[in-house]
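#struct-help
A.M.: can someone run this one for me? Single chain, 153 residues.
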Amino acid sequence: MDKLLYHGSYLKIEYPEIRKHKFTKDFSWGFYCTDIEEQAQKWAMKFKEPVVNKYKLKNIEELNVKIFNDYSHEWLDFVVSCRNGNIHPYDVVEGPMADDTIYEYLEAYLANMMDEDEFFKLMKFKYPTHQISFHTIRALDHIEFIDDYKISK
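D.P.: on it. C-alpha cells below:
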C-alpha cells in the first residue's frame, strides 16, 4: 500500500540516511517521518530555514514492520527500551510519538516518579501524533522522494 510521508528539516533530503546520534529517539536511531503534514511542518519550524520533504512509501508489506496503533503498555516498554540505547530487529516502526509534553511524563516514568497507570491517564488528554521510522538501508529503499518546500517563519 502506497502512503505519503513528510519529514521536517532544514534542507532538501532526496536520499535519506540513518545516523547514530548521542541520544536515541522513541524507536531508536533511524530516519523519522510522519503522515501528518502539519506535524512535519512543526518539526521543520525548529530550524532557521524550515523545509518539509515529501515521500511516497511503497511496498511496506515486504519489510519487517512493527506498528503501534495507539499508546499502550507495549509501546511504553518499547520506547523506554529504545531510549535506553537498546536496538530492535525491525526495518520500520510506526506509531504515536513521545512529543515534548509526553517526554516529561516519560522522564517521570523512567525516574519512578509515576507509574504506568498515571502515565496513561495523562496521555489520554494529548493530541494525535504519528511517526514512522526507518532503521535499515532496506527500509530506506521503500521510500521515494517526491518533492520539498520551504516554510516561511
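A.M.: thanks! The radius of gyration is 16 Å.
D.P.: also worth noting: The chain has one domain: 3-150.
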